[in-house]
Amino acid sequence: MSNITVCARFRPLSSRERRDYGDSICIQRIDDETFSLKDEKEGDFKFTFDRVFYETSEQVDVYTFLARPIVRDAMKGINGTIITYGQTGAGKTYSMEGVNILDCDEQKKGLLSRVIDGFFEDISSSGESIKYTIKLSMVEIYMGKVRDLFDLSKDNIQIKESKSEGILLYGVTKIPLLDPAEALQKLSHGLDNRAVGETQMNMGSSRSHSLYIFTIQQEMNKDIRGKYGKLILVDLAGSEKLEKTGAEGRAFEEAKTINKSLSALGNVVCALTCGPTGRGNHIPYRDSKLTRILQDALGGNSRTALLCCCSPSPSNAAETLSTLRFGARAKHIKASPNIESNEDKHAKVLIAPSPTEDDSRDRTL
Ligand code: ADP
Ligand code: MG
Asked: What span, in angstroms and rounded, lies between the C-alpha atoms of 358 and 351?
């Protein structure tokens, strides 16, 4: 069964939220794993996750808890996925990229550059006996199409399956990473391309999923076949509800496509974490390109971390609630009405019952 860590992260109030709503926030910390949330319409809720990162938490805390163990395993040939989920403006890209991938002080560095540092730390501590080759591909999924961020002419990459590499993106550019500084230059180049592509297509970055795919090939010696690991970091498109965006025309189609793929992701993670269901062992990877690409990084002997990014402002409480419910469902924990218990905290999310919970799942997942 797949192994998933689910965390929540609250960013500080934005200046706009402060201006319009003052300093009030809709969450109350209980401890490092549990908090309560107040929504004016739906009431009070209590959530427990593997870890909660509050407004004052540092980028390094997120990396150390959520990503470092997965990086270590990827170096040993265990596939992994790290996903940021949440409404637009909730802190997904900040968590993933930091402020600026090249010009970022140590404190603000995001997961991507820390993951790269982690790879090279592990390489230098592994000694001479194993040779590692790390490669990076960057793609974006927009309106159901996969685009190569290292080569914008490859704008409809097909997904295939191979015996040696598992799920692969056919013809995607793979850039070998030689050292951390050079790796960041490459990443930055891909990010610049993303901006160019988005301008060409008149699309905002929050309307597409960005995927950073690291492959780690080990070469032991001529006789022993080395292991192959894959680590995919995913900065998802904004999860805001369709009706709230008031979208029409193309924006409406974009939102529908996004909701469908996020829903497919929720279903896959849920099926993986709850084991056999009424549908047997079927895991619906093929329901979206996103889940198909993530298939072997999510399933089998793999590790997944989901970071649910949220605003702490009362003005965003409904979206925050929906994001947290996605996290709860990913962990596949049944909603338990107001039960307070100390047993197995890590496996429990307490959600007060709400008549709209099922509808809300349907809408947001
Ligand atoms: P998203 O990618 O979810 O749409 P962003 O990561 O772009 O959202 O965050 C929106 C804004 O909030 C950005 O200006 C970002 O720098 C800021 N921000 C997000 N999270 C934090 C945080 N933990 N600490 C400080 N600023 C943050
Ligand atoms: Mg973003």
From this structure: 12
> Nearest Cα to 293, choosing from 73, 83, 132?
83
Ligand number nearest CA of 108 is 1
Query: Does pLDDT of 342 surpass 80?
Result: no
For residue 267, which of 348, 330, 351 has the smallest C-alpha distance?
330
Distance CA 167, CA 345 (A): 35
92 annotated binding-site participant: yes
Expressed in angstroms and rounded, the spacing between residue 278 Cα and the centre of ligand 2 is 36
On the question of pLDDT at 225 being above 70, the answer is: no
Q: Structure pTM?
A: 0.89
**How many CB atoms within 10 Å of residue 171?**
11
Q: Which domains are assigned to the chain?
A: 2-12+48-335 (3.40.850.10)
In the block, residue with structure tokens 């004016």: 40
Query: What is the number of the ligand 1 atom nearest to the C-alpha of 91?
Result: 6
Q: Using the atom order of ligand 1, give the atom closest to the CA of residue 11.
A: 23
Mean pLDDT of 158-179: 92
Q: Which atom of ligand 1 is nearest to the CA of 309?
A: 3
For the ranges 23-37, 187-201, 345-359, the one whose mean pLDDT is highest: 23-37
Helices of type H across 78-133: 92-97, 111-125
Checking if the pLDDT of 276 tops 80, the result is no
Tokens 């500084």 found at: 181
49 in Cβ contact with 327 (< 8 Å): yes
* 27 in Cβ contact with 10 (< 8 Å): yes
Instruction: Please state, in angstroms and as integers, the Cα–Cα distance from residue 203 to each residue in 2, 126, 187, 233, 256, following that order.
Output: 34, 43, 20, 21, 15
- Whole-angstrom distance, CA of residue 305 vs CA of residue 328: 13
State the pLDDT at residue 260: 93
- Which segments of 164-252 are extended strands (E)? 166-169, 175-177, 209-219, 228-235
Q: How far apart are CA 235 and CA 237, in angstroms?
A: 7
Ligand closest to Cα of 13 equals 1
